[in-house]
Specification:
The protein has seven helices and seven strands; from the N terminus they run βαβαβαβαβαβααβ. Helix 1 crosses helix 7, helix 3 packs parallel to helix 4 and helix 4 runs parallel beside helix 5.
């Protein structure tokens, strides 16, 4: 029996790595995309192949290049001749004062956080001959205020949620498209302990989450056969207090 194949972008570090690990644990063959983490990607791939007896193919591409998403999907097709699941986790979040944001900053954030997910879905739809599921990793910040140092990130993630709804309608019923919008599951290095504490005061569950919370949400959306066009908040309820 052929294994299902999952492609995870941004899969070498942080939440992306946990997603790659979770698919291997569930018996998927995996395409692990990374932008610039070759050592971490190779180490993770080798460990998962050894532990779970699956194939993990590593692909390095910079999504600032508009042709990169199609090459990543083609690498999956070349390796496995099928593609069942795509999880688009690659993104950047650069902290910049409002007056310090440059056109290059904006263009790179938009390219990686918004343009690349679109063209990844376009290429994946052509390759998913048996149907499948696409899950975008969005961000609770898409609907937040009070983060002036993250304007390009917030705007592109907000646009990504609308993109999910548009593409879900277009690709139905053959392919389901959804998103997970995590809250504080891994604190950015730029976030101080005091800032984290202030943030959590507006989280009804009164704590931060974990990468496993995102993993569980992604796999729910992968398997939920009657769900498409949904943005699932995994933020401890913070969206209730906006």
């Amino acid at each position: 029996m052929l294994r299902r194949v999952a492609l995870v972008t941004g899969g070498a570090r942080r939440v992306g790595a946990e997603l790659v690990r979770s698919f291997a644990q569930r018996g998927y063959d995996v395409v692990l995309h990374h932008g610039n983490s070759p050592d971490a990607a190779a180490e993770l791939a080798a460990a998962l192949e050894r532990e779970h007896r699956v194939r993990v193919v590593v692909v390095q591409e910079d999504f600032a290049d508009p042709t990169a998403p199609a090459r990543v999907v083609q690498a999956a097709v070349n390796a496995f001749d099928r593609l069942d699941v795509v999880v688009s986790s690659a993104s950047i979040m650069e902290w910049r004062d409002f007056d310090a944001v440059t056109p290059d900053d904006w263009a790179r954030t938009e390219a990686i956080n918004l343009r690349a997910p679109f063209f990844l879905m376009q290429a994946a739809a052509r390759a998913m001959h048996n149907g499948g599921a696409i899950v975008q990793i969005a961000d609770h910040l898409a609907n937040e205020t009070g983060f002036p140092r993250l304007v390009p990130h917030q705007v592109t993630k907000a646009a990504l949620t609308q993109l999910v709804r548009a593409v879900a309608d277009h690709l139905a019923p053959r392919i389901r498209v959804n998103a997970v919008a995590p809250g504080l599951v891994l604190a950015p290095e730029e976030l101080t302990a005091d800032a984290t504490a202030r943030f959590l005061r507006n989280v009804p569950l009164a704590r931060s989450g974990s990468p496993e919370d995102v993993v569980q949400a992604v796999h729910y959306l992968v398997e939920a056969a009657y769900v498409t066009g949904t943005v699932l908040s995994v933020d401890g309820g913070r969206h209730l207090r906006r």
